[in-house]
């Protein structure tokens, strides 16, 4: 599997006039090599591919082993730069040009590559690996399903506990502990728990505010399983029956989220998916203050291509996992966010596959 991925990248590089490539972005190294030890780079060379590491892979607790078919080179000198060593090896293999990930390298590191192998012509690999990562294979989607199941389990258990009087920070820590208890590598991102006037804010950092009766409680979490990440967001009411304004706002965001989910078809433009969800909120008078995007891709990173945004260019393919996460926040009152991870599927395969299945009913906890 990893060799096939490397071969696809090699073909892309050859089409761009480069016989060798140096991959340095950790998620891209992992995608092509099966593991990304700290600071490691992957050289796709003219004669062989080499994973260049600062220390032997697998030393870190729980670290995965790289592809056994891939030669590993460990630096002899502590503190050396694997990227510099990789460029040196590319030159030794007779490469005349080397494609590098300029969007990941620092200027200083780029200069170092040029100085150690001045005969190499450095070109930009751009986002070539990220483009390969867009469409997931079934093994990747299986990991995403498990990551989503773990997040669903952790959230479901929290909803069965007593919430009134507990702080946002405490609830976030408990959710992250439950993720690990259920088999996650760890949280996919910093868990967000927001109560009362904080609810509905995207990316809210938990505070010491305590949960109170009548609050909206919005939660956004995700788990990481074998490197693959999920995301789920739900909003609830605490303790009592929801107020009329809470029901109206929730129903509106739910309608927007449903419109976004239903727009996830192969061939749909990224911006059309965003427009489907955003139009529902715009029409209700909530155009101001909406998030800059409706969703994004997920995989080895929690926020990867594609971006479902008003100006985004491109169209969806089948087997692309994305989030749909509209929300509305009313200053001083709170708000609603509903967030799912789905995989784009064609209609013949049942339409978009919902990975996060915790109920979206407005529950009073």
Describe the structure.
- There is one protein chain.
- The protein is an alpha+beta fold and 365 residues long.
- It folds into two domains: 1-133, Creatine Amidinohydrolase, Chain A, domain 1 (3-Layer(aba) Sandwich), CATH 3.40.350.10; 135-354, Creatine Amidinohydrolase.
- 32% of the residues lie in helices and 20% in strands.
- It contains nine helices and 19 strands.
- The chain has helices spanning 2-15, 26-33, 82-92, 107-116, 128-133, 138-159, 168-181, 244-262, 270-283; strands at 21-23, 41-44, 49-53, 71-74, 97-100, 121-124, 186-187, 192-195, 216-221, 223-225, 228-229, 232-237, 295-297, 304-308, 321-324, 327-330, 334-337, 340-343, 353-354.
- The strands form six sheets. The protein has a six-stranded mixed β-sheet, with helices on both faces. A three-stranded antiparallel β-sheet has the order 7-10-11.
- Helix 8 (244-262) packs antiparallel against helix 9.
- It is elongated.
Share of β-strand residues: 15-25%
- pLDDT below 50 for ≥5 consecutive residues: which ranges? none
E-strand count = 19
The SSE string, one letter per element, is: HEHEEEHEHEHHHEEEEEEHHEEEEEEE
What is the 3D form? elongated
CATH class descriptor of the largest domain: Alpha Beta
Helical region count? 9
Instruction: Write the CATH architecture name of the largest domain.
Output: Alpha-Beta Complex
Query: How much is the average pLDDT?
Result: 95
CATH homology superfamily of the largest domain: Creatinase/methionine aminopeptidase superfamily
Largest sheet strand order: 4-3-2-1-5-6
* Helical content class: 25-40%
| Multimerization state | single chain
Total domains? 2
- Report the structural category: alpha+beta
Largest sheet features: 6 strands, mixed
CATH topology of the largest domain: Creatine Amidinohydrolase
Distance between the termini: 46 Å
